[in-house]
User: Fold these one by one.
Assistant:
Number 1:
Amino acid sequence: MKQKETLKKVLRLVKPYKLRLAGMLLLAVITVALTLYTPILIGEGVDQIVGPGEIHMGRLTEVLILLALAVAGTAVSQWLMNLLTNQITYQVVEDLRDKAFRHLQEVPLSYIDRHQPGDILSRIVTDVSQFSDGLLMGFTQLFTGVLTILGTILFMMSISVKISLLVIVLTPVSLFVASFIAARTYHMFRVQSETRAEMTSLVEELVGNQKVVQAFSYEDRAMERFRRVNEKLRVCGIKALFFSSITNPSTRFVNGLVYTGVGVFGAFIAIGGGITVGQLTSFLNYANQYTKPFNEISGVVTELENALACAKRIFDFIETPAQTPDKEDAGELQEADGSLALSKISFSYQPEVSLLKDISLDVKPGQRIAIVGPTGCGKTTLINLLMRFYDVDKGQIFVSGFPVENLTRDSLRRSFGMVLQETWLKSGTIRENIAYGKPDASLEEVIEAAKQAHAHSFIKRMPKGYDTVIAEDGGNISQGQKQLLCIARVMLLRPKMLILDEATSSIDTRTERKVQQAFEKLMEGRTSFIVAHRLSTIQEADRILVMKDGNIIEQGKHEELLARKGFYAKLYESQFAVS
């Protein structure tokens, strides 16, 4: 049932190219018809020379000319058929991959959080490639194979009904062999696809974090994890290969039975004068042509099983519910005034595990709000809700007086500038990375932003300055330099609201003081949320929110919270205790 549903979805993908498909099917019919006409000509040619002293050169010449034209026509029509097949297949694959990648931009962050990047990568790249191979073979060989079988039976019936019945009686053996193998290969190839995705995910994780692996001497454990997945892939790969590899020998055995039966039975009929020698020759050719498609179809079935297993994984991804779309009447947040309010919001990543509970907060324009608390208390989750990376389960969030669900996500997020502890840069020039949020920024604007972030000096020392190409995620510059570029990116945009999550954690102390001064200037007149672990960086905040177990348990200025001698005071003393 699952295979049928997947196949229906594949056919829907092919529907836009129905004219090309019709042309391909027509060419397939022509190819098969000419192929099946060839044995008749060969048989007639044999009959023109088989009698003692009876060689009819005139008719033989005509037969040879027709045979040459039939062979040439078969070659041309087959070439055109393959050309159309390739066009349809790769167009469908392009559409499918485009659809999958477009959907990747729409899936909620909860899906990304629950799945390894390597698994998603495997679906979009590897599984689509495997699917295209099976689809290509299925188009070219499955249809022509079925046509050849049906056409061969008709041609054979026109020569001898008795021999044809013998062939038809042996046909179910081939069908049984093909269906028996197909029933087992689908499961094997599905497991192989899933294990391949697991392998891709593991390799992507270890390669992307090779420095961490080496720094913590994790090489042996990483190798053990790799060996375990690799062994699992080897076992399921051998099983899938075993079932797919017995297809050809099994069907060839059946082919041998059919050919032998036709040869022996047909010879007795020819001796009795039921058919001519030439017709027997044609019949033997048809026996070969009749059984050959079963070889191809069984091979195609194996490939299609693999393709459908891969297609199912792709469709499962594409059919993952997208994030809740913006309302049709959602408005654009043109000019945020910096005010923000939380009204009794609650949120949890998993329904059975409560996180944020009944939180209310009122932030005035230009206020600096610091958020502190132990790991896992909900600091980052609160930021994710402000940016609407996740939607609240209960309550409402207001920005500039508007409920966030009544605003488009794009306009809401453009009103915030984020600098996170975990930096992100794309493969491209330094200028392109700084201007990521404002691609039309002039070089002068980019340079000014870099100067404010104190990144200009190190950029000028780079081989090509602002045109220096950095690797994906900034692999060829230091962590501190990456963070300075991320800070410059926000300096360029100068949004009305800022989110700073340990934004200077990877910068040396001297540069940090300068950047903090730049932030002080940037935060003037702007609402700022500062997620901090080092309490020394947030003493000047207008309000400090102290979070624990998903609740705001204390709030106030630095001095007020110290005077209360509560949870914040204990956190502060633990960081600055004198030994």
Number 2:
Amino acid sequence: MSPVFIRRLRLGAAFVLLTYLILHFINHALGIVSLDAMAAGRSWFLAWWRSAPGTLALYGAITVHGLLALWLLYQRRTLRMPLWETAQYALGLALPALLVVHVVSTRIAWWRFGVDDPYPRIVLALWLLAPEQGARQGLTLVLAWLHACIGVHYWLRFRPWYPHAAPWLYAAALLLPVLALLGFVAAGREVTALARTPGWTEAMLRAAHAPGPAEAARLLAIRRGFLDTYLVALLGVLAARGVRRLLEWRRSVRITYPTGRVVTAPSGFTILDASRLAGVPHASVCGGRGRCSTCRVRVLRGLHDLPAPSEAERRVLARVGAAPDVRLACQTRPLLDVAVEPLLAPSVPPAEAFGTDVRQGHEQELAVLFADLRGFTRMAEHKLPYDVVFVLNRYFQAVGTAITGAGGVTNQFTGDGVMALFGIEAGAATGSRQALAAARAMVEGVAALSAELAGDLPAPLRIGIGIHAGPAVVGRMGWGESFYLTAVGDTVHVAARLEQATKDYGAELVVSEDAARHAALDLSAFPGYDLAVRNRAGRVGVRVIERVVSLPVV
């Protein structure tokens, strides 16, 4: 089976189990209302999960998820892993042993011996007859939910919308198990009151066809049989790992890092496995699953001896525009000695998991905007330094809000100027429309600020804006802690020149014909010029917009 198929199969099984867990928690939470409300919810819950399709979906998902967990444990070349991944593995491996008592006493008892499992019987057992089992069941509930939440978080964290949704999802993740536990406590108190009624307990157990001593012994045997089988399977996987390790160490490879350190690892280990085995710091946001590019390395020696990248690895490398000598450390299994250089720092946030190569960047089409506050230097000569800082910060707030509101990225604030990028994700067409919309909003924002500070300004604030669209190299550039997303190239140079040209033309905006074409905007009504750009062959066709308010709505 291919890794992509296994990942999708496991994800599908996880979705089924997560749905079951959420609905089960909601059913428990109805205990806050009453025991009757829990029973009513249970009828709907069982209508699906004990039907033929529901049974197949649930127990098929349990089987698939469990077997794949054991298979992936065998596949791992080293058990050294990040703390979050260790926690997820440990919880996942412990849950079958913790859940088997509950599953056997409910579903298996119903299936084999016709024992009903209404909430009064289960709550009576867990709350009054065996409270230690109730405490263990509550702990199991929390651990199962924690295991699910870790998986959901590390599956969603690369989505661009996730940072905005995370607080709401976090609140729901906290609230749901709390409500389920409160529902169980409320039901326990209600059952305690009912149990004081003479004959209630006996009548309820008879109605539920509670198992007798013979059935209880059979159920205990089933539970022990499962635990023994599970323990044998787990030990078998660990033993198989040990045998494979012995065989692989007979054919080892040497991996050299830029520091001069050489790590000897068994043939078949990935480069990331070797780093973890030797304790070499190595970035890997997705945990080595090939879902991000943070573990990528530049191969300094032995590139042609490496196995060809898989389709999944090729897709990730293409997405970040990687050079031919760059490979994913988590997917590359060297068969001969190799020298590599990790390209990202060992601590990389999820937002950069698919970022462009820090050292080489990524060429793409986008729109670039430059803006400058006119006459501010002369005005600042007559103001106290702190007053200048106050006005500048208010100006940057106005233009920054306009840029981000239009979908752009504020890239540089230098003096009283600003550079912004548009269309990093969507391309030059969308970026050009966003840049023109931002220009309109920037002029409006500066006008509003000028009116607000009119009593403290010798003259109204004016702004000049230049916009150009075309290819540029985009990447995180800088040194030390001063890395930031920026763009370089001819397109940036031209956009800066267009901003300067607003002084020559006495206009608020100079936009290139290329940007207007990308935006599908007809600017033929505005004066057009062929502008010379220093250190650049050829001229740039531009349109001069004296007042941005006259610009057609994009």
Number 3:
Amino acid sequence: MCSGTSFQKWQAEAIRLLIENGHTPALLIVDARVASPRPESKPVSKTQNYSLLWRACHRLLFKSDQKILVGMETELRAVPQMLCSVNKDNFSEYFTDSNLSAIKSRKLDFILRFGFNIIRGEILNAAKYGVWSFHHDDEQKYRGGPPGFWPVYKNDPVSAAMMQQLTAKLDAGVILKKSWMKTLFHSYKTNLDVLLMTSSTWPADMANQIMALGYNPGPPSDTNAPVYQVPGNVKMIVFLFKLLKNRIRFYWNDLFRAERWNIGIVNRSIQEITFSANPLVCEEVLWMRERSSGNYFADPGGFIEENKVHILMEDYSYSDNKANISEAVFDPVSKTFSVPLKSIETKEHLSYPFIFVYGESIYCLPESYRYGYIGLYKRNYSEGIFVEDHVLLDHIDAVDPTLINYNDKWWLFFTLRKYSNSHLYIYFADELDGEYKPHPLNPVKMDVRSSRPAGLPFFNEGELYRPSQDCSETYGRRVAINRIIKLTETEYGEELVKFIGPIKDCRYSKGFHTVSGLGRYTLIDAKRTKFNFSHFGRQARHKFRKH
């Protein structure tokens, strides 16, 4: 459903991805009221009765890059077009009987709604899998519109988007895809662009999923959220002041508040920390001694050898803008840490040294997205270092790769650089060094509150739990513990059990983003913020070039 062969940028990308994946468009259902072959043409304005401030800001400040019109005459030249008229009933639009019959005769798999307004009636059943439409907000909180606006206005840390199979109820269809992203309070335009861009992959993802697994939709959304409308002048004045305050705060934190992570060890198991009613407190953490003001330690993973805890960590330098993997040893008797020494050092950035034991060997799986592959390192006992053993996945910019052996398969969890805090991917293989295949539901989860891996998964009473990061309010705000309900080659499901951190009344109270259980011990990291000259210079140069 469209207005011709011109589409908004994110819509054009969705169509291109469908074509690239072999899902050829069979019909353009064109709105006869606004049809035009010219790329510069625009649909009938929906802003004619909107407030003066909204119209002015919409044209001058909120002009979305993803809404720029793109002509697709070449790509869609061979696709037949059908001009369709609708009958209006208040805000609803109903297709005529003759148009319905003609559309049904095409035996379409699904209809993608990139045109018309609130459609109802028999058109919703005119294709095998219905009409797919988008709502760029969380339907449980905000129905109506404008898209992506009200989370910024209401200081909601999370903005959402969904693709739904339409039903008669507004913004309450069957949810096919849904993501929760961090709200970008400093820029409504950017917040909206992220939501639109994120959803552009979903039609192709859903079509591929149907081809691989069939169509198994759930029930319609049960939302009773209020229906919002475009804000009036008074609310727009309030909103503009909020944007100004948020932008000042954003640039202040970005330029002057560099992260200072540090690593600690707790004499409690990860199971006890997770399921105990007693929260983690600063007094029970033994912290490593901080290095210079230009370095920090983060992302602990480890193993126990000769009754001592060996801790692998990201060793980051602000002046170099990169990290290596270092190793320190904790002595439980003296309760002291050795001086960290380099264990894995390369020309590019390495972080998140995920440690696991398999057979007689100890392995390290560091994040190495700048190399474009996931490399597995093996412990060299004679030299006390890790050496690269083999590549698990090539040509991929994976973030925080986490590997577990479960039900006789190896499961590799990670996010990708583009959506490193929100989109979770899974690959699996029969052997540790085998061929890793993508899960057909990838990304299996799109939630900034609980997607990105945050340490070693663990078992409790026979059930598998996965630590993940909550980056909704700030990067590495706290750890979410998820219970994995389904993990097979065709299914994935998990549910949130508990949030851990940040640690209150502690020097490191600004964030908490890794937990790794080692028997009776748990390794953690936490952060504070402090001004750093190297960080300031780099951020300032980046923003100067950007503008």
Number 4:
Amino acid sequence: MPLLRFFLYCLFFCLSSFFSTLIFSQATNDLEEETILVTASRIPIPASSVGSAYTVIEREEIEKRQLTYLTDILRDIPGFSVSQSGSFGSQTQIRIRGAEANQVAVFIDGVKANDPAAGDEFQFDQLITTEIERVEVIRGPQSALWGSDSIAGVINIITRKASGEAFLASSFAEVGTFNTSSLGSRFSLVEDKLSFSLGASHLSTDGANISRNGGSWGKHTKTGELIFLPSEGAGESDGYRNTTINLNTSYQISESLVSSFFIRNTDTFRDFDGTLNGFPVDKNNTTDASQRYLSFNLKGKSFGDLLQNEIRYTGLRTSNANNAVDSSGFHVLTTTSAKKEGIYFQSSLLLRRNFLHNITFAIDHEKEDYSFNGQIPASKSYDPNQSQSISMTGYVLEYQIPDLGLSSISASIRHDKNNNFGNINTFRLTSTYNYSDFRLHASLGTGQKSPTFIERFGYYPNSFEGNPNLKPEHSRGWDIGIDRAFLSDTIFFDITLFNDVLMNEINGFVYNSEGVASAANEKDKSHRRGVEISLSAELSDQLEINSSYTYTKSTEINNLGAEVKELRRPRSMFSSNINYMPNDKVNVNLNLSYNSDRYDIYYPSWPAPSERKILSSYSLVSLVAGYQYNNQIKILGKIENLLDQDYEDVFGFNTPGRSVYLGLQLGY
């Protein structure tokens, strides 16, 4: 049955492509040429000059789909897979092209937001969409531009800023299933040389039960597979609260100099369950967490636009306080926190001699501090209550010809000096060729990822002990693709092939004779290769279809020397979004996301060995509708998981069923 559904989705994709080329609409859409990306290079460049595979999500698309969590749209981007460990606000991991979740760099308004206290992963579960204006995704190795964490790509999140109007205000409210409520307001002001934007939102939900409604685990009578036996009416819900404040200001000091300031603060509270024999069980565990991002930026230019300089200071503060109930019924409080500061300078020289040459030199300096404190008794040889630091200075040189007739090229090199790992060099080459409605794009590069504080110094009694002698991970990868436009640029089709090799991969489950895990660099290489296909069709002023398909083969060598599939990476992913506007007041949006079977791992109590388990394929369907009552009032409604799909992203962790929401938006 899952195989049949998969073929039906592929057929739907092909039919969408076929009919898209036949159905009317000759209106010109120049979005591809007008789009400017700020992440694909150290300076903004037009999309037609970007050699890496990319995706751009605009605010308009977020509003059409009435998205609360950014991960709900990221799962539809080619090459992306999402793993959510339970209900709303639970740990959520994003993997790009089969890479690890901490191998993608995430920026929020220039702040590198990967959390050192969360294994260098960005906490996507804490990110809601209310103040997000635009998201840029650049796939493939980007370390030559952005340093560690960007082995698989970069996600750049740009928050909302003041528009051209003097003063604007808006509010929204939403209620729905699981006793969910959400409300927020934003204000923006533009006055002479000053612009100001402030937004605040609060989300609260009782959530669903992570631990599969209090059932039990047993073996299938025929296959012997471990299965879950739910117990109706049992269990408790795991709730979530999120309060986010976002501030953006800028001031035009002179015609050639502008300053900007950004701060974003998120406070969250969530329930989570404990584990028993490797499975989640109902426990009154809670986490209080906060993330604060700030940035101060100065941009200037001289000699016209010949020389452009920028200096930026960024700060990151995170804290995660876990209040858990141990096996004896006692509450154990542990706190992990991190501080990251960065100072960045770059200078770009824009030379015109026959054609434009861009030469950029940049210096990035970052310092990270990590601390762990908790009621965990120290062993005789190891104290878990500790603080650690690391610093890095990176030197970047990028040469770019964005418009060389029909082509563009770029070359980047980076030298990182790290106080723990020595010197690391990375490079990236990209090229494009544009002819009429045809575009060829290609990139080749290397990446690196420094070991995390947890991998090096983490300590959990009888469970994990870090390895301070770890080396950075390295990668080498390429992609090549073709864009093609049809019917006066109303239809865009892209197919991209990619291949990545990971070396020195860090394995965090290397066990000693006592069953205590540690981390170690693997000797063998991991391989990730596949194809990404996307289709965008504006069939008329009323109807638009966006579809994508990704095939990923992600493998590693196990401890027996055999090549095996990596965990939580579906081979096939498909998505399709249909947006219909019958008139200027009504908007209807239907979205389908499909993930094929994938493996996960189950860790029973030691000394029983770990077991690989198959997570079944699933499809998520959402339906939303909006009605613009007048210029100031908009009525919203949505149904998520329309088919009430019972599925797991992580083995043993329940996810929410069907939910219905109704909302109201006031103002602009």
